Amino acid sequence: MLEIHNLHKSFSGTGVLSGMDFKVDKGEVVAIIGQSGSGKTTLLRCMSFLEKADIGEIIFDDYKGDMAHISQKDIKMLRMEMGFVFQSFNLFNNMTALENVMEGLVTARKMPKDKAKEKALEVLAKVGMLDRAYYYPGELSGGQQQRVAIARAIAPEPKVILFDEPTSALDPELTGEVLETMKKLALEGTTMVVVTHEMSFAKEVASRVVFMDGGVVVEQGTPQEIFGNPKEERTRQFLNRALHKL
Amino acid sequence: MSERLIGIITSSFFKILIPGIKVTIPLTLLSFALSLAVGLLLALIQVADIKGLRQVARFYIWVFRGTPLIVQLFIIFFGLPNIGITLDAFPSAVLAFGLNLGAYNAEVFRSAILAIPKGQLEAAYMIGLNYPQAMVRIILPQSFPVAFPNLFNNLISLLKDTALASSITVIDLFTTAQQIAARTYEPFALYLEAAFIYLIFSTGLTWLQRYLEQKLVWKSDKKR
Ligand SMILES: Nc1ncnc2c1ncn2[C@@H]1O[C@H](COP(=O)(O)OP(=O)(O)OP(=O)(O)O)[C@@H](O)[C@H]1O
Ligand SMILES: [Mg+2]
Questions:
Q1: Which of A60, B133, B173, B205 has a CA between 20 and 30 Å from the CA of residue A110?
Q2: Strands in chain A per DSSP E
Q3: Strand, helix or coil for residue A136
Q4: A40 CB under 6 A from ligand 1?
Q5: Is the pLDDT reported for residue A40 higher than 80?
Q6: Of the candidates A72, A79, A88, which has its C-beta nearest B128's C-beta?
Q7: Cα(A194) to centroid of ligand 2, in Å?
Q8: Count of other CB atoms within 10 angstroms of residue A130
Q9: pLDDT (tens digit, 9 = 90+) per residue, A180-190?
Q10: CB contact set of A240 (below 8 Å; sequence gap of 6+)
């Protein structure tokens, strides 16, 4: 459904992604793991055009385009079909939880207010935040903010949702509620790309695990393959470190 | 204090206060409104980095901040008629004060917009907003509370600077005090009176600022 080919990205001369290929099919939950600095965030940001790729091709359903020379109009059209959940939530501070969720429906998609409100309340209920609908971000805990951010991302029913370490800015006792919410979405068949350091989440929830290093995909497969029997030495080393840290 | 002096002071108080209310305050408010519009426009041009226009905005700010306000007043009121544009004294003053303060408010708005974390704009993009929508719906509403204290300080400065309008024949609070001083030969008393009335006005604005800031702080506290 969403494919990236030969993605290159460097920051002031330093190569971060060097010919990366990546794809996600409808209904898949892809977990991306890898060391800090391996380019996971950069991949998601290039896919969503928050960062401009140096070279790369994107195929998104019927759309096919050059990522380095894409028009603003195409970017906007593609973003309408993507959701993004940030590490630092980035809820709109000037709006209540409900308004945060409604904004993409009303302003970007021109949905009538009453219908948008209905939809927003429905997704807030799904993430367990209905009772906080009229709270501002500053009045919510980190875990609650991230659940509202997830509601905001899923409300327009995008084809794919990109998560960039959705729990790593949270206190350990708050990660559970967010991971549970994401698990619920996964079980409903939501297509998800999740950059994560939560190996247990990758193991239990992902349908495919992608290990990135040095700006390329080193190895990918089912969680059983990657965690049970990694083929590459680099994968093995990374997992040893990551799993023993926990 | 002689009875004559007391008589002059009491009889002139309202004669000065009334043009204060009818001229100085409207002049301040209209100029301020213009300066907000100019400042916001200049700030948006700069942060949106609109090619070509950005240089125009920088040039504008450079000129208006780099030349004396009274010279700008004179150019607009005494100078423009030479090229066929004749304005009355009051609109000339509004224009000069508004355009001048606009250059300063542009910097206030610009830094307030830049103070909003980048993630707010990125999140707006990812729910499908375009740049103008993100500005209007997300960034500007969060910038106003940040800009507010500095904007209000500029308003209070403007109130006092409007006394310069007397130099282009606007009959405001200060011009009236000057006229009465000349007639009665009591400049010391009259200018103290004028100063006192400016002080009342600016104190009123300071109270208003404190009141509004409390409301804003409360609100943005809630929102943080
Ligand atoms: N805007 C930027 N400017 C310059 N360098 C950047 C920028 N963004 C990322 N980098 C560099 O690119 C490399 C990859 O960063 P990226 O954030 O993609 O890694 P990551 O895999 O997400 O790491 P982490 O697990 O710590 O989040 C890093 O070396 C980082 O310093
Ligand atoms: Mg990252």
A1: A60
A2: 2-11, 14-24, 29-34, 55-60, 63-66, 82-85, 160-164, 192-195, 208-213, 216-221
A3: coil
A4: yes
A5: yes
A6: A79
A7: 11
A8: 15
A9: 999 999 999 99
A10: none
Please check the confidence at residue A241 and state whether its pLDDT lies above 90: no
The number of residues in chain A equals 246
Q: Quick one: which of A120, A113, A84 has its CA closest to A192?
A: A84
- Is the CB–ligand 1 distance for residue A36 below 6 Å? yes
SS3 for A216?
Answer: strand
Cross-chain residue pair A86–B142, CB shorter than 8 Å: no
Closest to B28 measured CA to CA, from B102, B89, B98: B98
CA–CA min distance B55, chain A (Å): 24
Phi-psi region of B49 (alpha: psi -120 to 50; beta: other; left: phi over 0): left
User: pLDDT tens-digit profile of A125-173?
Assistant: 999 999 999 999 999 999 999 999 999 999 999 999 999 999 999 988 8
Q: Residue A134 phi/psi, 5° resolution?
A: -100, 20
Reduced DSSP (H G I as helix, E B as strand, rest coil) percent helix, strand, coil of chain A, to 5? 45, 25, 30
Q: What is the ipTM of this complex?
A: 0.94
Q: Cα distance from A237 to chain B (closest Cα, Å)? A: 33
What gap in Å lies between CA B35 and CA B67, rounded to an integer?
17
Pocket test for ligand 1, best of A10, A36, A199 (most atoms within 8 A of CB): A36
* B198 closest CA partner among B61, B45, B16, B2: B16
Chain A residues within an 8 Å CB radius of B138: 92, 94, 103
pLDDT, tens only, A158-170: 999 999 999 999 9
Q: Nearest-CA neighbor of B61 among B74, B45, B42, B48?
A: B42
Whether B137 contacts chain A with CB within 8 A: yes
Q: Which amino acid is at A205?
A: V
Other CB atoms closer than 10 Å to residue A245's CB: what's the count?
Answer: 8
Q: Which residues in chain B have Cβ-Cβ distances shorter than 8 Å to A137?
A: 223-224
List, in sequence order, every residue forming a beta bridge with A200; answer none if it has no partner. none
The verdict on a CB contact (< 8 Å) between B130 and A83 is no
Chain B nearest C-alpha distance from A222 (Å): 29
Indicate the SS3 state at residue A15.
strand
Instruction: Locate B75 and state its tokens.
Output: 């150019």
- Exposure b/e, B69-108, CB count within 10 A at least 16 = b: eeebbbebbeeeeeeeeebebbebbbbbbbbbbbbbbbbb
Q: Residue A212: nearest ligand to its CA? A: 1
